[in-house]
Amino acid sequence: MDSKLRTPNSELRTLWEQDPKRTTLPLTLDEVLSQVQSYISRKVLFWGERAGEISSYVAGWLAGKGITVIVLDGANRFDPYTVSSLARRAWIPPERLLKSIRIARAFTCYQMATLMGERLVSLVHARAVGAIHESLLQKPWVILLGPLTTFLDEDVSEREVRPLFERSLRKIEGMASEGVPFLLFQSNPPHPPLRKGEEGRFMSSKRVYLMKRLFQFSNLVWRISLDEELQIVLEKGLTEKYQMTSTQSQISSS
Questions:
Q1: What is the DSSP annotation of 147-190?
Q2: pTM for this prediction
Q3: I need a labelling partner for 8 at 20 to 30 A (CA). Which of 62, 75, 81, 167 fits?
Q4: Which domains does the chain have, with CATH numbers?
Q5: Is the Cβ–Cβ distance between 57 and 86 less than 8 Å?
Q6: End-to-end CA, the chain
Q7: pLDDT attached to residue 157
Q8: Distance of CA 209 to CAs 6, 155, 213, Å?
Q9: Cα(242)–Cα(219) distance, rounded to whole angstroms?
């Protein structure tokens, strides 16, 4: 089974078949995931275009490796059909991969904070116990899809969002320190509507704050771009020691 999932890049391209110009990666997804797997402290962010589709593919790819996956979906973008399609192309029964993936969805920032806090602890424990006979050392991998999306709700003030988001990050940090790997997938957050007065500035401030914190929190940051072709580019790694990247500077000045 492993040999059929060793080069996911060719399979991932089917997501972009409608555009023949977008068919190559300067660094293959397989190479990216191999780096992620060998990284000790795994809080890895993939951000940019089509993050939801790529996260669905990665969940199936990990499940195909025999890894238990938990998906917390705050963007309502996880697609089980992508997993099924990957399984069929690898000659694996789709049910086998789907059974290894547990999905929990959130539609408000309060629900997302609960998932990232108390709920995730119980999910990881339950999945670890269920997989104990398969691997005594293997911990479930957690995919956070759209970790910022619900927190960008215009109806929730920045004063409420900041402590809620910070508590959620502390929960994730604690679990990551215990060896639970986290992959975060965030599409480009929408720019605030152009408005006159304080409300427009308020939304811009919240968006900048959330993006900055997500970048600072993540050990590795990969940017997904579809300008000319599909690209996955490393923007932050070990040597940067949590410093803000040039992309973060661009965000803060926008």
A1: TTGGGG-TTS-HHHHHHHHHHHHHHHHHHHHTT--EEEEEEPPP
A2: 0.77
A3: 75
A4: 2-253 (3.40.50.300)
A5: yes
A6: 46
A7: 92
A8: 38, 17, 6
A9: 7
CA 144, 145, 147, 153 torsion: positive or negative?
negative
Contact yes or no for 151/164 (Cβ under 8 A): yes
Q: What per-residue confidence (pLDDT) applies to 161?
A: 96
Instruction: Give me 46's structure tokens.
Output: 């993939």
pLDDT on residue 129: 58
Phi, psi of 113, deg, nearest 5? -65, -40
DSSP code string of 62-111: HHHTT--EEEEESSS---HHHHHHHHHHTT--HHHHHTTEEEEE-SSHHH
Mean pLDDT by 10 residues, the chain (254 residues): 41 41 48 68 85 90 91 95 90 93 96 92 73 57 96 92 96 91 86 50 76 93 76 70 35 35
Give the integer Cα–Cα distance in Å for 229 and 214: 26
Instruction: State both tokens at 127.
Output: 């999945």
Q: Which two tokens stand for residue 30?
A: 């397989």
Strands 220-225 and 231-236 come out as antiparallel
Residue 225's beta-bridge partner residues? 231
- Is the separation of the CB atoms in 187 and 14 below 8 Å? no
Task: Please tell me whether residue 128 adopts helix, strand or coil conformation.
Answer: helix
Residues contacting residue 158 through CB under 8 Å, at least 6 positions apart: 202, 205, 206, 209
